[in-house]
């Protein structure tokens, strides 16, 4: 595939580049540039990515770990679907329905394996999605050279934000997958030779699934469709956009028709009206750059400066090269979105991991090509330096432990003979106790996201207060917890979710037993 670099920007830097990016493949030693190098390199990329997500979890909480909280919410929502309950109409869900739909097969699998092991299978599949995403990053950059493609895949494989979101069932991994697939199918870095209408339709259908997984996916649809329209003509961009609208509508419309007002309120209004948390720019920057493991407390350091400078240089290169501007546009749009987000969680950085790595990869590819015009030895030295930098960035992963254990079987034994329901502030506890289905079969109140309810309740004067000061949510939480004959508290405590008064009430309930450090209590009226 030939990529025309003759841009609209009259720049000495741009015109100094060779006329095609694919000459990079030929300017690096041919002994390492054949198709087998690509296949073997991307296979290594997949294995490294999978291991980077699996090993920290095995060293930490294990495959049956408590998880991220949100992963339990998504699986519980899927289990609700399996039992005939619809999100928005029958229970609160603050996200689009895409991930619960993806998890429905794992809900069915629980009938065979039990909920804890079905969750393990789901987690392993998400790790495989992470490996696939790393390979797809390489394939997007493949027109720029095989070596650049493999190095880009390795960058994604060990990028901590990507590792974090792909170690369990969160929203961002499949959203990245459909975005990357759309870029690969349309050969987004090329001129579109050999890309027919069917390719744009398929890419659009895939891209339209992104907003059904996480509402931020609307941005991916607009940027990719707009970028293709700018480079290849309005008809192709419009084909992608209309196909995306069609697939998004097919997934979301049934849920919207079942509960239009509730779905709009939960998925759009509640998310946009979240109270603003403490803004820590350094933490956001380190999370986005994948440097969260380098310091215990967020603070500027040499690695932050070096990584930011490297990213900025790569971004400038991508803006100067017309074939790479779509990658720059994706990164800039997601960076602006994350900058204005009212709250911050580490997994938010996973949404920008692929655009960030692609920008770095684009900058690296152009640098390799420029070095090759000076001498093959320089391009090889630069590639070796880039590989060393990737390895050094992955060093903290070798010491990282992910997740905390939860003794599900022990907790389940405490409540095994009790009638009625088990309530919790952390849905993963019910999953690891294999009691989510039992609750559903007994007609228990189905609350998949007790914490998220604080963003949905009409709390009046308390709506902008932190959760532990929101008296409406405190009453709501106690009301729900009291619907059970047993309760497992795993997330909230005094000043952390619960107010001191609520925490005192919960601690006053009689103890039924213990599972490690977790106390199972009997709620009192």
Gist of the model:
The protein has 525 residues and is mostly helical. The chain contains 24 helices and six strands. Helix 3 packs antiparallel against helix 6, helix 16 packs across helix 18 (350-374) and helix 17 runs antiparallel to helix 18 (350-374).
Structure description:
The chain is 61% helix and 4% strand. The chain has helices spanning 12-15, 23-27, 35-59, 70-82, 98-113, 115-141, 146-158, 160-165, 172-185, 197-207, 210-213, 217-232, 234-258, 260-272, 281-289, 302-320, 325-340, 350-374, 376-393, 408-415, 427-432, 436-441, 471-481, 500-507; strands spanning 422-424, 486-488, 493-494, 497-498, 511-515, 518-521. The chain has a 4-stranded mixed beta sheet. A two-stranded parallel sheet has the order 3-4. The longest helix has 27 residues, at 115-141. The model is unreliable at 1-32 (pLDDT under 50).
Sum up the structure in keywords.
525 residues; mainly alpha; 24 helices; 6 strands; 61% helix; globular
Q: Could you give the count of β-strands?
A: 6
Biggest sheet descriptor: 4 strands, mixed
| H/E element order | HHHHHHHHHHHHHHHHHHHHEHHHEEEHEE
In round numbers, the mean pLDDT is 89
Task: Please give the radius of gyration in angstroms.
Answer: 24 Å
Q: What structural class results from the helix and strand content?
A: mainly alpha
Main β-sheet, spatial strand arrangement: 1-2-6-5
Oligomer: single chain
Task: Specify the helix fraction band.
Answer: 55-70%
Distance between the termini: 70 Å
**Unreliable stretches:** 1-32
Give the CA-based shape.
globular
What's the helix count? 24
- Indicate the proportion of strand residues: under 5%
């Amino acid at each position: 595939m030939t990529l025309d670099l003759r841009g609209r920007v009259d720049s000495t830097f741009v015109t100094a580049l060779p006329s095609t990016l694919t000459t990079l493949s030929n300017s690096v030693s041919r002994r390492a540039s054949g198709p087998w190098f690509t296949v073997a390199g991307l296979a290594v990329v997949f294995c490294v990515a999978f291991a980077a997500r699996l090993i920290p979890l095995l060293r930490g909480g294990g495959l049956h770990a408590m998880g991220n909280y949100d992963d339990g919410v998504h699986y519980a929502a899927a289990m609700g679907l399996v039992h005939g309950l619809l999100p928005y109409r029958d229970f609160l869900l603050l996200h689009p329905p895409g991930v619960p739909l993806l998890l429905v097969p794992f809900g069915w699998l629980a009938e065979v394996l039990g909920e804890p092991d079905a969750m393990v299978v789901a987690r392993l599949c998400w790790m495989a999605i992470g490996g696939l995403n790393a390979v797809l990053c390489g394939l997007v950059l493949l027109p720029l050279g095989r070596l650049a493609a493999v190095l880009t895949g390795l960058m994604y494989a060990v990028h901590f934000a990507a590792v974090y979101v792909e170690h369990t069932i969160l929203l961002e991994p499949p959203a990245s997958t459909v975005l990357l697939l759309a870029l690969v199918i349309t050969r987004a870095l090329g001129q579109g030779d050999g890309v027919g209408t069917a390719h744009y339709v398929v890419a659009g259908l895939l891209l339209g699934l992104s907003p059904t997984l996480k509402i931020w996916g609307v941005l991916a649809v607009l940027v990719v469709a707009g970028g293709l329209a700018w480079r290849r003509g309005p008809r192709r961009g419009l084909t992608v956009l209309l196909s995306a609208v069609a697939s998004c509508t097919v997934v979301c419309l049934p849920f919207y028709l079942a509960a239009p007002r509730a779905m709009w309120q939960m998925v759009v209004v509640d998310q946009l009206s979240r109270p603003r948390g403490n803004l820590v720019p350094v933490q956001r920057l380190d999370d986005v750059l994948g440097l969260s493991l380098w310091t215990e407390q967020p603070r500027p350091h040499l690695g932050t400066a070096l990584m930011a400078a490297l990213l900025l240089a790569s971004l400038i290169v991508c803006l100067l090269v017309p074939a790479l501007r779509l990658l720059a546009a994706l990164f800039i749009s997601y960076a602006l979105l994350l900058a204005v987000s009212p709250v911050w969680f580490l997994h938010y950085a996973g949404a920008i991991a692929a655009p960030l790595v692609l920008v770095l990869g684009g900058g690296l590819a152009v640098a390799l090509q420029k070095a090759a015009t000076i001498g093959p030895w320089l391009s090889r030295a630069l590639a070796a330096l880039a590989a060393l930098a990737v390895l050094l960035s992955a060093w903290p992963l070798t010491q990282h432990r992910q997740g905390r254990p939860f003794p599900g079987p022990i907790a389940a034994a405490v409540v095994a003979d009790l009638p009625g329901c088990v309530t919790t502030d952390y849905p993963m506890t019910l999953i690891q106790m294999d009691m989510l289905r039992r609750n559903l079969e007994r007609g228990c109140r189905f609350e998949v996201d007790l914490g998220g309810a604080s963003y949905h309740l009409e709390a009046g004067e308390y709506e902008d207060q932190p959760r532990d000061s929101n008296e409406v949510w405190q009453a709501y939480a106690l009301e729900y917890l009291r619907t059970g004959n047993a309760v497992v508290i795993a997330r909230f405590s005094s000043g952390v979710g619960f107010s001191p008064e609520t925490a005192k009430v919960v601690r006053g309930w009689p103890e039924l037993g213990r599972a490690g450090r977790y106390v199972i209590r009997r709620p009192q009226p």
